[in-house]
Amino acid sequence: MIVSVLRRLLYGVLVLLGLTVVAFGLLNLAGDPAALLSSPDATPEDVERFRETHGFDRPLVVQYLSWLGDAVRGDLGYSYRHGSPALSVVLESLPATLALIAASVLVALVVAVPAGIFAAIRHGSRLDRMVIGLSVFTQSLPTFWIGIVMILVFAVGLRILPASGGGSVRHLVMPAIALGAFQVGTYARLLRSSMVEVLESDFIRTARAKGIRERRVIGLHALRNAAVPVVTVIGLQIGELYGGTIVTETVFGWPGMNRQAVQSIVAHDIPVVLAYILVVGVLVLVTNLLVETLYGVLDVRTRDRSVA
Fold first, then answer.
1. Domain limits, CATH 1.10.3720.10, in the chain
2. 266-301 per-position pLDDT tens digit
3. What pTM value is reported for the model?
4. Which of 27, 64, 93, 164 could form a disulfide with 253 if both were Cys (CB 3.0 to 4.6 A apart)?
């Protein structure tokens, strides 16, 4: 298990290194940073002075190696817009994004798990077909459309929830529901398919033959085994959500790091963008490690292979 974790950490470091190389190159290919960051009334001498001050006159490879050396020591540079450390700018808005992701996944699971279980138990019934149909329907709805409709109904019409901003649970309700609606369909259909397969297994028949109560058979034996593929998808989707909540954050004015990253890209604030990419990469790496660890809890066979 330890060897497997260390191997994944090594792969993760290599992926992060490649990610920063690509990001650094693309950001500098977007245009001359000195010209883009200088004020509109700056003279050519001012632009050249700015270029020399921030090291933009050096070769791109030298600039990257210099940035990488500082990054290894924990220094990701200073934001051109905020004048503060780039990493601090990203980390200040990170809790808001993590709260939004956690709330959306919780909303999705609260709806999807019971729906998937009941659909599997009544496999082939009207309830089963209704769950499948609603799952496909929720996945077809764009997140920004759901957000706008919710704002019109609950903020403008009923005036029971704030339309935008952050800082309280009330501000989190609509963004979490809008972001979680798409995930409901994926989790419900996957859990339903996995449960149908597990419920037809021999060990489930044996458990029922022993007289174990049906609730215990479904809730402990069947659900635990059926949850393995669902955990896989949750881990993958959380990795996507680290950088995929931008639409929701923009629609609801949620003060997350993705909204901050887009503003930094528009302003060509390279240190903040690079810090954002690095933070997202680390988050995805940590999430993958946690999912793999959870495999060992849910599926003993996976744990045994890891140890071997």
1. 87-307
2. 888 888 999 999 999 889 888 888 877 776 666 555
3. 0.83
4. 164
